[in-house]
């Protein structure tokens, strides 16, 4: 049942984003920022935790999950280091995911020979 919940929740998030792209004049970058901020706000309100327990990867993989990871990292770093935690918490919490995206993107660029759009 975990797979089913992850599939429909992740699909619903993607469908809502696609509706935003198709029906509004919002640019994709702004929608991505909106998702990250929404994930952080939901984490702040203690709503994202139960949602993630229910949907598993369907909630943690989209950009909402990235915003929640940033929020958790900042919260923990502020509790540990005070004011400076605001600046270092998000970096520490998301470093592995961002590093993996950079490394795998670089490897993919060797394999698929990317080109600029004309």
Helix content bin: over 70%
Estimated structural class? mainly alpha
Major β-sheet, in short? Answer: none
- Cα distance spanning the termini: 45 Å
Shape, per Cα inertia axes: globular
Please tell me how large the radius of gyration is.
16 Å
- How many structurally independent domains? 1
Mean pLDDT, to the nearest integer, reads: 90
Please count the helical segments: 6
Poorly predicted runs are: none
Helix and strand sequence:
HHHHHH
**How many β-strand runs?**
0
In percent, how much strand structure appears in the residues? under 5%
Tell me about this structure:
The protein is mostly helical. It has one domain (2-112). The protein is built from 6 helices and no strands.
Give me some keywords for this one.
single chain, 118 residues, mainly alpha, 6 helices, 83% helix, globular
List the helices and strands and how they pair.
Elements: H1 2-23, H2 28-44, H3 48-55, H4 57-60, H5 63-81, H6 85-112
Summarize the structure.
Helix content is 83%, strand content 0%. It is an all-alpha fold and 118 residues long.
């Amino acid at each position: 049942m975990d797979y089913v919940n992850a599939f429909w929740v992740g699909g619903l998030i993607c469908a809502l984003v696609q509706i935003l792209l198709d029906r509004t004049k919002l640019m994709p970058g702004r929608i991505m920022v909106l998702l990250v901020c929404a994930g952080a706000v939901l984490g702040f309100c203690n709503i994202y935790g139960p949602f993630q327990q229910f949907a598993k990867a369907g909630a943690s993989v989209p950009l909402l999950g990235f915003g929640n990871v940033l929020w958790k990292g900042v919260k923990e770093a502020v509790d540990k280091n005070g004011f400076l935690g605001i600046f270092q918490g998000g970096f520490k919490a998301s470093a592995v995911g961002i590093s993996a995206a950079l490394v795998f993107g670089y490897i993919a660029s060797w394999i698929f020979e990317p080109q600029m759009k004309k």
